[in-house]
Amino acid sequence: MKELVEVIAKALVDNPAEVAVTETESEKAIVLELHVAQSDMGKVIGKQGRIAKAIRAVVKAAAAKSEKKVIVDIMQ
User: Fold this and answer.
1) pLDDT higher than threshold 90 for residue 76
2) d(CA 50, CA 26)
3) Quick one: three-class SS letters along the chain?
4) Distance between CA 70 and CA 50 in Å, rounded?
5) Cα(56)–Cα(59) distance, rounded to whole angstroms?
6) 36, 74 in Cβ contact below 8 A?
7) Which pLDDT band, with edges at 50, 70 and 90, does 29 fall under?
8) How many CB atoms lie within 10 A of CB 48?
9) Which residue among 16, 23, 64, 68 is least enclosed by CB atoms within 10 Å?
10) Cross-sheet strand order for the sheet of 20-25
11) What is the pLDDT of residue 65?
């Protein structure tokens, strides 16, 4: 999951070198924190959060086989 979010984010931003994804796993959920440059926040979130919703939908579909919930948080 971590690699999937990283590939998607790097394709969207102007500074792909500043994209970082950290993964925290608990019993019931996996939390992926996406860190991007301040100037790229708008590109990752999109108008009215549409791109962020799309990223979360793709990750949710990819995680459908696992029994854990996957949460994608976008951080500065």
Assistant:
1) no
2) 27
3) CHHHHHHHHHHHCCCHHHCEEEEEECCCEEEEEEECCHHHHHHHHCHHHHHHHHHHHHHHHHCCCCCCEEEEEEEC
4) 18
5) 5
6) yes
7) very high
8) 8
9) 64
10) 20-25, 29-35, 69-75
11) 86
Tell me which of 3.40.50.2300, 3.30.70.260, 3.30.300.20, 3.40.50.300 is the CATH number of domain 2-75: 3.30.300.20
Tokens of 16: 């792909």
Instruction: Give the C-alpha separation, 26 to 40, whole Å.
Output: 29
Question: What pLDDT is recorded for position 66?
Answer: 84
Amino acid found at 32: L
**Does 67 score more than 90 pLDDT?**
no
